[in-house]
Design a protein that fits this description.
Radius of gyration: 66 Å
Number of strands: 0
Number of helices: 3
Distance between the termini: 132 Å
Strand content: under 5%
Mean pLDDT: 81
Low-confidence stretches: none
Structural class: mainly alpha
Shape: rod-shaped
Helix content: over 70%
Order of helices and strands: HHH
């Protein structure tokens, strides 16, 4: 954006074209009257161009350069932020993946522990049921033994009473006593 050469060319052409224009004007119809006023207007126009160049062009170029640099800096910052966002996203993806793996591992561990606890509970319940069944069988056997013993004792008493009544009628008391003792001994050996 360098107009210095363009400005110089414009001024050069202006002054070079003045004599050519004057000659064309002589040969052609007088459309433009080239006189001192016209030359002053051209000089004024050249001065105006020079002043505009010095006063307006440099600040405008400076503002455009600043704007260009600002946009460039913003684009660089945006690119940097985009790269950081991509890196952060990748980091989060990795952390999320690690979290999912840890979660799955914990679920597997929890399932395994629950399965082990279930097996222990079932085993304990089975053992408790077996123990209770054994206790019930033992208690039933004990009750059976007690009942058998009680029935035997009752049978012995009844037999003893029957034998005593029969013997009392037919045998004397001494013989009766010997028979009862033998019978009780025999029953005790069996029971």
């Amino acid at each position: 954006m360098n107009f210095k050469g363009g400005y110089a060319l414009g001024v050069y052409l202006l002054f070079k074209a003045s004599p050519v224009l004057a000659e064309v004007q002589k040969k052609a119809l007088p459309v433009v009257n080239l006189n001192f006023t016209m030359i002053l207007q051209w000089v004024n126009f050249a001065i105006l161009l020079f002043l505009l160049y010095k006063l307006l062009y440099n600040p405008l170029i400076k503002a455009l350069d600043e704007r260009h640099n600002s946009i460039k800096k913003s684009l660089e910052e945006a690119e940097k932020a985009r790269k950081e966002a991509v890196e952060l996203r990748e980091k989060w993806q990795k952390e999320l993946e690690a979290f999912k793996q840890e979660r799955d591992r914990m679920f597997k561990e929890a399932r395994k522990e629950a399965e082990e606890m279930k097996e222990e509970i079932v085993k304990a319940a089975y053992e408790q049921a077996k123990s209770m069944t054994d206790e019930v069988y033992a208690m039933m056997n004990k009750m059976k033994d007690e009942m058998v013993k009680t029935v035997r004792l009752e049978a012995v008493k009844i037999a003893f009473d029957v034998a005593r009544q029969i013997l009392a009628r037919e045998v004397n008391a001494k013989l009766h006593e010997d028979i009862v003792k033998k019978f009780i001994k025999r029953m005790e050996k069996k029971g």
